[in-house]
Amino acid sequence: MAEHATHDTHDDHHDDHQQSFFQRWFCSTNHKDIGTLYLLFSLLMFFVGGFMALVIRAELFVPGLQLVHPEFFNQMTTMHALVMIFGAVMPAFVGLANWMIPMMIGAPDMALPRMNNWSFWILPFAFTMLLLPLAQYVFFGVGAGGPAGGWTLYPPLSLQGGNNVAFTIFAIHMMGISSIMGAINVIATILNMRAPGMDLLKMPIFCWTWLITAFLLIAVMPVLAGAVTMLLTDKFFLTNFFNAAGGGDPVMYQHIFWFFGHPEVYIMILPAFGIVSEIIPTFARKPLFGYKAMVYATASIAFLSFIVWAHHMFTVGMPLGGELFFMYATMLIAVPTGVKVFNWASTMWKSSMTFETPMLFAIGFVILFTIGGLSGLMLSIVPADFQYHDTYFVVAHFHYVLVTGSIFAIMAATYYWLPKWTGVMYNEALGKWHFWLSTVFVNVLFFPQHFLGLAGMPRRIPDYNVAFADFNMISSIGAFGFGLSQLIFAWIVIQCAFMGKGAKASNHVWEATKGLEWTLASPPPHHSFTTPPVIDDKDLAHGDVTH
Amino acid sequence: MSPTKSKPKVTDPRRPAAVRTAILVGLVAFGIYAAFFVRAILNS
Ligand SMILES: [Cu+2]
């Protein structure tokens, strides 16, 4: 990773051959280095959050209370979600955006490199804040631990714990600022820094999905910030936004939160759609089927994501008209999502496919994410949701979307681009082991949770009726298998990124790659496209753009 | 052709436009934050 290709161009403010470790990584303004930082941070958080998940699954291995106090169990479910969403998935996508978007559109760097540095370096401090109350309790026995009211922080429950909620709220503010600055950078880069000839509708689909994601971030992160600021003032400054006794409205919090929360799930899946839309054409050796349809479908999903939020609160007591509106609006999202799934299938149709690890994860994504999408459709049906609400069926649903969806796409992206980033081919046999073990165990882990939910097992409980014992034990076995399988992934990344072990990767890395990023060396020079490249339409990733 | 062999550029001519875009988008974000407060205060 530390290797630079020779070049004679230097940024006006630094010379990367003479940069100290501190200058290079702490004061970095380079999109590739910042991308690396984001990705490593994300990997670390993935294991922190994963460890919390294993505490949860260990406690649920058999009925009864074994390992942890119920209060601590609730802290684990709360922190697992916050760490995975804001620490693992979102920074991974921002890291991929940092690395790839400038290279894909022929820009020398992100548009605002110093702000880019801020965006990243806020995160370690935010997560120190977030984890501090929990770490104090676990390691030193000080305090009562972290927040335990669920990651949604619904009042009044979230305000009935200790003052540690202030840490959580401050951390969320910082993550929000980081995300907003990251999104601003993506928007400014894509709108202003494209190489001449790189029209918007010629951009790789990953850039499109990220551009739309960035607008979602701009629209909803301030809403989350507003919601948690109001929580803060309700807790510490005597306001009554959500306090019914003072004339406030706790249900209003749920509306505001989910107005953020639903677009948030698309923030975590649209870049994944982009990644899969890059990988499938490469290994199918065919242009992406329906490039423009993909762009319009992504935009449609983004628009619809703003008018479906109350499907998370069907049981809160809304007027029937509201229930119906949110039910049908939610079902509508299946249409553009279906367009995408059929486009991926059509891209693979009658193609000459090979099944390297990135392609395996991409195909795993298409199939398993669709299972999560279908259980989402089941949940959108209001009368059925009255049965499913707050059960393990919901847990199964969103883990199919987020683990076999977002995380599988991040894995696919890592295998796809790791040789480009490091100049070293990863170990394909180990990659395949990682894919198959992950895929088998993730289904052992989450599929039984559908049955538990349909049978009525509620989420966020440390103990359960013995009737649920068998499926919980199977699920926990899957969890430990899946968790251990990820050590293979960490080992593969360490081998490529830190040990430089493996065959030398060519510029194009894979046989059928297309696009500007593959014209650069592997690893690419520290500064690339300082002069805008000349774009040849036939090199573009999705082939013939005149259609 | 190696895209890295080029004359150093001191300031990218596209930078002012990029900064304008960034400021505009940042203001939109802040406006949304403020608007939700106004809405919530009116509600309570
Ligand atoms: Cu939703």
In short:
Chain A is 64% helix and 0% strand.
Question: What does this entry look like structurally?
Answer:
- The complex is a heterodimer of chains A (547) and B (44).
- Chain A is mostly helical.
- Helices cover 64% and strands 0% of the residues of chain A.
- Chain A contains 16 helices and no strands.
- Chain A has helices spanning 21-26, 31-59, 70-105, 113-140, 165-192, 205-236, 250-267, 270-284, 291-304, 320-332, 334-348, 357-380, 382-388, 392-422, 428-454, 469-497.
- In chain A, helix 6 (205-236) runs parallel beside helix 9 (291-304).
- The longest helix of chain A is centred in the N-terminal third of the chain and has 36 residues, at 70-105.
- Chain A is globular.
- The two termini of chain A are 39 Å apart.
- With 44 residues, chain B is mainly α.
- Chain B has one helix at residues 15-43.
- The longest helix of chain B is centred in the middle third of the chain and has 29 residues, at 15-43.
- Chain B starts with 14 loop residues before the first helix and ends with a helix.
- Residues 1-7 of chain B have low confidence and may be disordered.
- The A-B interface holds A 5, 7-10, 12, 108, 111-112, 115, 180, 183-185, 187-189, 191-193, 218-219, 221-223, 225-227, 229-230, 239-241, 247-249, 252, 256, 519-520, 525, 527-531, 533 and B 3-12, 14-15, 17-19, 21-22, 25-26, 28-30, 32-33, 36-37, 40, 43-44.
- Bound molecules: copper (II) ion (CU).
- Residues 262, 265, 308, 311-312 of chain A line the site of copper (II) ion.
- Residues 262, 265, 308, 311-312 of chain A line the site of copper (II) ion (CU).
